């Protein structure tokens, strides 16, 4: 019963965070696409005070020993990690991050496949990219 209660509390916390980001006055949607038009897309929802949510479906699992890593790509300088994740077995993605990465002044968000545990800098070409624009 305690485990179920803890799981339900975690689920409520996640739902509250998602709602906070989506309903924030400054909430923005960023579409992250691949080079292949038929490939699954991901979407990020960002609010300066609330954080960032990354969602997707139909996303293939990376090979064993590999993970996906979200990057904030600044207008100048090197990409900054905003978290690592693996899709669920059914291909769904939900990443909630309160990263300190400076998204407000960034040029783009990008996702690359990296070694398990992530990398300090991307080691592969990003599979998904979404421009932030001004």
Overall spatial form: globular
Mind telling me which CATH architecture this is? Sandwich
The CATH class is Mainly Beta
Strands ordered across the widest β-sheet: 1-2-3-6
Helix content: 10-25%
- End-to-end Cα distance: 49 Å
CATH topology call = Immunoglobulin-like
**What's the average pLDDT?**
91
Main features:
single chain; 134 residues; alpha+beta; Immunoglobulin-like; 4-stranded antiparallel sheet; 1 helix; globular
Structure description:
The protein has 134 residues and is α+β, with helices and mostly antiparallel strands. The protein has a single domain (2-131), classed as Sandwich (Immunoglobulin-like), CATH 2.60.40. Helices cover 16% and strands 38% of the residues. The protein contains one helix and eight strands, in the order αββββββββ. The strands form two sheets. It has a four-stranded antiparallel β-sheet with strand order 1-2-3-6, with helices on one face. β4 (66-74) and β5 form a beta hairpin. It is globular. It starts with a helix and ends with a strand. The model has no long low-confidence stretch (mean pLDDT 91).
């Amino acid at each position: 019963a305690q485990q179920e209660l803890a799981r339900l509390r975690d689920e409520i916390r996640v739902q509250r965070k998602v709602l906070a980001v989506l309903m924030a006055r400054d909430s923005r949607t960023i579409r992250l696409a691949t080079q292949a038009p038929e490939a699954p897309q991901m979407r990020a929802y960002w609010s300066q005070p609330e954080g960032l949510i990354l969602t997707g479906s139909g996303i293939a699992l990376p090979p064993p020993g590999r993970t996906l890593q979200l990057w904030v790509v600044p207008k100048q300088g090197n990409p900054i990690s905003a978290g690592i994740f693996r899709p669920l077995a059914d291909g769904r993605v939900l990443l909630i991050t309160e990263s300190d990465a400076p998204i407000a002044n960034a040029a783009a968000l990008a996702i690359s496949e990296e070694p398990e545990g992530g990398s300090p800098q991307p080691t592969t070409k990003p599979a998904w990219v979404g421009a932030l624009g001004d």
